[in-house]
Every structure is written in structure tokens, then in C-alpha cells.
Amino acid sequence: MNIFRLLGDLSHLLAIIVLLLKIWKTRSCAGISGKSQILFAIVYTSRYLDLVTTYISAYNTFMKLIFVVAAYATVYLMYIKFKATYDHNHDTFRMEFLVIPSLILALLINHELTVLEVLWTFSIYLESVAILPQLFLVSKTGEAESITSHYLFALGSYRGLYLLNWVYRYYAEDHYDLIAIVAGLVQTVLYCDFFYLYITKVLKGKKLQLPA
Amino acid sequence: TIFDKLHDEL
Q1: Where, by residue number, does the polypeptide cross the bilayer (chain A) (predicted)?
Q2: How many domains would you assign to chain A?
């Protein structure tokens, strides 16, 4: 564990809590993409299957459980409890366009052709693009509430911090995983446009509104 | 194995 990874995990945890609290407190999931949330539930389910096969640490197990449970809780709140507030007219990104290519790529490029390993790789590829329906939703409506922006900033920062963690681990531990690194780079690059708007607008107290 | 080390992250 190094500081970048810890900050990355905490940033991820913060993002999840912010999103759940926002939905719970406002009794609404307006502006949130249910498609992205379903994709995240798929991501964490397929990645953390090793919960039953490999023990790494209490921290690792605890965080994995939190991420899986929170992903399903979010999907439940959006599609069942606060279904009436779900913005499905704008949330039109096709999930299969991300799931199918990620699965094919995982079958082609992986560390080992076993079920668990391919599913782990699939989850890494899918996570890198899972935010696209959310970014698509924001671009369609042309704006995002501040709290949604904070959620996206924390979620985007998480993989960015992991990139620093991988640089650190490369030098300090001689450890690197190209699949995770390349996917992490893609994932972070997808947020760049959003990061720019967040820093130039939201942090100055303005609403995130896209130029017409 | 190598995989234990590879997948020690979240």
C-alpha cells in the first residue's frame, strides 16, 4: 500500500458515498445514468469473484464488499425505489456497445485464458469505459448538478491516482500490469474534458453547463 | 503465483 493507492481507494469510496447520499437525501436520481451504474455493478461483480478464492487482506476484502454492495444498492435505488425520478429519456447509451467489445477484448488480450482471469480482465476493460453513458447523459442535457460533478470528479480522480500508484510500484516494487495500466490511462483520459470544466467552473461556484 | 500479486489491488 502506498499513499497514491490509498488516496485512490478513498476517492473511489467518497464517490460512491456521495452518489448514494445524493440519491437518498434528494429522493431523486435525476441526472444520473442508470446504464453507467449497471455497468459498474457488472464490473465489480466480475472483478471481485476472487473474494471467494483469494484472501489478500482485511482491508482488501472490506473494500471489495463495500464496492459490490454499494453498486447494487445504487442500481436498486435508481431502478426500483426512486424509479419515477430516473431520467431514462436521456439515458440512451447502448450498454452492449461497451460490454460486448470489452468481453471480446478480454478473451483476446489477457494474462491467462481461465474463467476468473478473463472475467477480471473484462472488468478492467469495462470499467475504463463504464462512465461513458454518464458523460453522454451530461452532454445530452448540457448540464450537471454540483453534487453530480463532485461525484464524477472523485470517481475520475480514483483511477488517476492509481496511475501514480502504478508508476510508484514500477520503481519501488518492480511490479506492473500492462492491462490495468493501459485501461487506467484510457479511463482517466475519458475524464479530461470533464476535469477541465470542473476546475474552471464548478470550483468557482458555477454550475457545470456545457457550451451550447 | 504471479496472479496473486497482479490482483492485489481494487
Answers
A1: 62-80, 92-110, 122-139, 178-199
A2: 1
